[in-house]
Amino acid sequence: MRAALDAARAAGRAGEVPVGAVVMCQGAIIAVAANAPRGLRDPTAHAEILAIRAAAQTLDRDRLENCDLWVTLEPCAMCAGAIAHARIARLYYGADDAKGGAVEHGPRFFAQPTCHHRPETFAGIGAGEASALLRAFFAARR
Questions:
Q1: What is the pLDDT of residue 44?
Q2: 48 is catalytic
Q3: What's the pTM value of the predicted model, to 2 decimals?
Q4: Which of 17, 19, 38, 70 is a good FRET partner for 128, with 20 to 30 A between their CA atoms?
């Protein structure tokens, strides 16, 4: 989670919502990404999507079975869908997102009968630090 938090801080410094993501495979980090929708002018450039894309390129395959995704914020519905399609084995996330999250909040994507793959999910890892980054980012913009 430390690498994801570092990526989140970098996103915040770049003016992006401070969210970071890391994909690990067999205990090694294979991809690190930070939110970049504004910088890339791409509404799909969430940290999770960028990390999944980079990991797929690194492994030269579209399925990330046996890979873990660490992200500082509960994934949204788009990212939860990508996690399912990528066949991520385990999802670790920090801060809950009552407004936009889709794992424990909102649509509870992985609990839907139409979801074809459900990663093991572990919430609250580094939640205090991830939440503090988000609060500070949004407080500075109000």
A1: 98
A2: yes
A3: 0.96
A4: 38
Instruction: Using the structure block, give the residue that is written with the tokens 């999770």.
Output: 48
Q: How far apart are CA 96 and CA 73, in angstroms?
A: 6
Q: 57-87 pLDDT, tens per residue?
A: 999 999 999 999 999 999 999 999 999 999 9
H/E segment holding residue 132: helix 127-141
Please identify which of the residues 16, 48, 120, 129 carries the catalytic annotation.
48
Contacts of 1 (CB under 8 A, 6+ apart): 22, 70, 72, 92, 94, 125, 126
140 burial level (CB within 10 Å; 0-12, 13-18, 19+): exposed
Residues of the chain with pLDDT under 70: none
